[in-house]
Design goal:
It is a single chain. The chain has one domain. Helix content is 20%, strand content 27%. The protein contains 3 helices and 8 strands, in the order E-E-H-H-E-E-H-E-E-E-E. A 6-stranded mixed sheet has the order 5-2-1-6-7-8, covered by helices on one side. It has a two-stranded antiparallel sheet with strand order 3-4. Strand 1 and strand 2 form a beta hairpin. The protein is globular and about 35 Å long.
Length: 128
C-alpha cells in the first residue's frame, strides 16, 4: 500500500510542488531528503523532473534506468521514466498538502507536515 506525499521546494516567492506515490513516511523520506537534497540546487533539481513514483538518493538518470527497470538508488519519475504526461511540477503560492505527508524545502532546511498537523523541522531520524 502506498504512503503518498507532496514534496515542495520554495523558489523565490512560489513553490515548485510534486506528488510522490511510494514510501512517503518520514522514516523513509527524511534521511533521503536531508542527506541527498540538502541545498537549494539539489532540492530544485529533485522536483524539476515532476511527479515521483519512488524517491531515492539520486535524481539522475543512469543508463538503463526506467519505470519498469529502475536502477537501485535512483529516483523514478512518472514523466521522465514512464513516459506519462501531465506530471510536471506545479507552481503554487503555498506548499501542496493534499497527501498523507508533505515535505517543504524552505530555502534552508526541510520541514514536514504529518496529516496536516503542525509544521516541524525534518531531522535525519524522526520519532513519531
Amino acid at each position: 500500500m502506498a504512503t503518498r506525499s507532496n514534496i515542495n521546494v520554495k523558489v523565490g516567492d512560489i513553490y515548485h510542488c510534486v506528488y510522490c506515490h511510494w514510501d512517503g513516511y518520514p522514516e523513509h523520506h527524511g534521511p533521503i531528503l536531508t542527506a541527498h537534497y540538502n541545498s537549494q540546487e539539489l532540492a530544485e533539481k529533485l522536483v524539476s523532473h515532476g511527479d515521483i513514483s519512488s524517491l531515492e538518493n539520486s535524481s539522475e538518470q543512469p543508463e538503463g534506468h526506467s519505470f519498469s527497470t529502475p536502477v537501485k538508488g535512483y529516483t523514478v519519475y512518472y514523466g521522465r521514466d514512464r513516459g506519462e504526461s501531465n506530471t510536471d511540477f506545479k507552481k503554487k503560492n503555498k506548499p501542496l498538502t493534499q497527501e498523507e505527508y508533505s515535505y517543504i524545502w524552505d530555502g534552508e532546511k526541510w520541514l514536514f507536515l504529518d496529516c496536516h498537523k503542525e509544521e516541524k523541522q525534518l531531522k535525519h531520524a524522526i520519532s513519531l
